[in-house]
Structure formats: C-alpha cells, structure tokens
Amino acid sequence: MNRRTGGVRTQARGKVRLDLRDEGADVTDWEGLRQNMVDHQIAARGISDTGVLDVMREVPRHLFVGRGMEASAYGDHALPIGEEQTISQPYMVAIMTAALHLTGEEKVLEIGTGSGYQTAILARLADRVFSVERIETLATRARRTLDTLGVVNVSIVVGDGTIGWKEFEPYDRILVTAGSPAVPTSLIEQLADPGVLVIPVGSLAKQQLRIVEKRDGAIKEYDEGGCAFVPLVGKDGWELRND
Ligand code: SAH
Prior knowledge:
Strand content: 25-35%
Structural class: alpha/beta
Number of strands: 10
Number of helices: 6
CATH architecture of the domain at 9-21 and 96-227: 3-Layer(aba) Sandwich
Order of helices and strands: EHHEEHEHEHEEHEEE
Distance between the termini: 29 Å
CATH superfamily of the domain at 9-21 and 96-227: Vaccinia Virus protein VP39
CATH class of the domain at 9-21 and 96-227: Alpha Beta
CATH topology of the domain at 9-21 and 96-227: Rossmann fold
Bound molecules: S-adenosyl-L-homocysteine
C-alpha cells in the first residue's frame, strides 16, 4: 500500500489465487444468490443497464465482506466492514454505477474504496480505476481481495479523497461512495470535459445522489434520489468526530 507521500506506488500484479473461503466443505450456492440479488433487488427496481447487471451477476460480493458475514453478503442492505464503515447496498452500487454510463474506455476516480466491491465493479466496466481510501486497513484488505480476484487495472492509495488524486487527472468519471456536505471543488477540477461525477450530498444522516456533468466548460447538476452513506471525512468533507 502506498501513502500519498511515500515512495513507489505499487500497481496490481494480476496474480490469480484461489479463495480459501470457497474451498472445502462450502456448498453455498453463491452463484444462485447473486442471480437472485440482481433479479429481485436490482433489475426488478428498474435498473436496465445490461453491463451493470451482468457484472453484478459475476463479481463475488461475499469475498468483500468480513469472515462470518458471507451468508449475508447478497442481502438487500449495506453491511459493516469494520472501522465503522460499510459495504454499500447492492442496489445503491447498481444505481451509482449506472449513473456513470461507462463504455469501457474511461479512467475512473473512486473516493472511498471501502471493501473494494464497488471498485471491482468499476474495474470490469471501465479501462482503469484509481481509488482513494482514508483508512489504511481497509485499503490493504481491499487490495488483497482484488489481487485474489486477479483485478489488475486498479490502483489504490491511502489519503484524503476530498482533494482527489492529482497525479492522474483528469478523470472521465468520478464516483464518491461516502456522503459529503458539498461537492469538493478539487473533484470538479479533476473531472475531464466531458465528464460525470456522482456523489451523495447532504447532511450526515441523509443525502441526495448528485450527478455533476461537465461539458464544453459548463457544469450541470441534478439530484437523482435519496440515499444514506457513511460520512466523507476530510478537508472538503466532514470533520472527523471523536465521540
Ligand atoms: N464503496 C465502498 C463504500 C465504503 S463506505 C464499499 O461498498 O465497500 C465509504 C468509504 O469511504 C469508507 O471506507 C471510508 O473510510 C471512506 N472515506 C471516507 N472519507 C474519505 C476520504 N476523505 N477519502 C477517502 N476515503 C474516504
């Protein structure tokens, strides 16, 4: 893992390893749970982007949750992943990903790697993903999971994503997976033209999913519906609370 200030940044190496949690006496029908999740929680609620649906039928979400929670991984809810953070609800992952309208060519910046599940989805639908996570233990775990799955087009850094990741700008798409009081100006600056930024904006308790479009130098913003994310903590986000 590389800190923003430190040394050489390691890229994924593309090793494919077996996941030990899938070995032995495990007879859970993960594939069936995934199809069920997509059919009943996502397609049934009106998401029709076949790229998003197909990828969510394939990425093994149960590998991104903590040990012992695998059986709940395909439920219709967020789940704790430690450090007071959560893996987002599958439906929310689908809505946000669909809002990005990915074609496979894009360079994407993700803020809030968390479990790495959303990162894995983006990696399948875009050309390259740069992901910033504030909490090192989560970033390390996400990196490991992505390596296990042989995901090679993702770079993760530990740092404050409210200031973006200047080194690789501009980004065709930016996705923030934590709730912010406002749209951080650095992210608008680092967005390509044309480009799309998706970010939950509102109070600590609830937000609206805001879509920010940059085209011909102009910015257009609209809200796509209510959501509730853990806080985006940092310079242009919420202050860290010590209670
Ligand atoms: N997409 C992730 C969501 C994780 S929750 C998933 O589904 O697993 C949001 C994440 O944003 C948390 O891991 C949190 O630590 C991270 N985060 C909060 N503020 C951040 C910031 N300023 N920069 C980078 N990551 C941040």
